[in-house]
Amino acid sequence: MTQSLFISDLHLSVDETDRVRLFLRFLTDRAPQADHLYILGDLFDAWVGDDHLQPPIPEIKLAMQQLSNSGTRLWLMHGNRDFLIGDDFCRETGAALLQDPTLVDLYDTPTLLMHGDLLCSDDEPYQRFRREIREPENVKAFLSHSLAQRLALAQRYREMSGEAKSLKSESIMDVNQETVKAYLTEYAAERLIHGHTHRPADHRFELRGKPVQRHVLAEWHHDQAESLCVTPEGASRERFH
Fold first, then answer.
1. Is the pTM here over 0.70, yes or no?
2. Starting from the edge strand earliest in sequence, which strands make up the sheet with 73-77, in order?
3. Could you tell me the CATH number of the domain that includes residue 116?
4. Residues pairing with 213 in the sheet
5. pLDDT tens string 125-160
6. Residue 152 backbone zone (phi > 0: left; psi -120 to 50: alpha; other: beta)
């Protein structure tokens, strides 16, 4: 059966060995049954450059490459934690890098794919930080540091991010519905699939007199994962333990 799988927010890291094993099993047991696997951001909890080869990164790369070689098309989008994934990583895994946002024709339904952080427009300090940190000169400056320095800076960023989140209301870190509508209108999309918020749900509403859908992908945990499976017949959620 023709099908596409969507996942996001795995936050893989050296410390999360159970989550890594779950992802490796997903790549060998479930993903090969799909025509496409879309990873919509935050595959890693932090990515400091394609020269980072600390285990289990080589094992993850190899499993992704094997999936690509098996015939499942692998697509990857940057998240807010791993936007430094570059051409070398994609070449070594067989993944194609998607821009955020990207419009695809998903079984005759125009579908907009996003990581999701752009939709959280009420969080203005974060949006300013997002723009600043991705400026080419800032990226170049960060990558000019040694690997050890980059890892230390990434750890400091995670700590600062956690501190900042603790001071924000839950609502400000969720999507802005008007921003959602604006993106759907701009891209003439009838479906939106994204992650980032860790609030999995299937939303349905009307826009321009037509029904539209917004599917929010789930965060992965050490003992269970969730993917969104889309076929010509519709979308459904799958749990993977």
1. yes
2. 96-98, 73-77, 36-40, 4-7, 225-231, 234-240
3. 3.60.21.10
4. 191, 204
5. 999 999 999 999 999 999 999 999 999 999 888 887
6. alpha
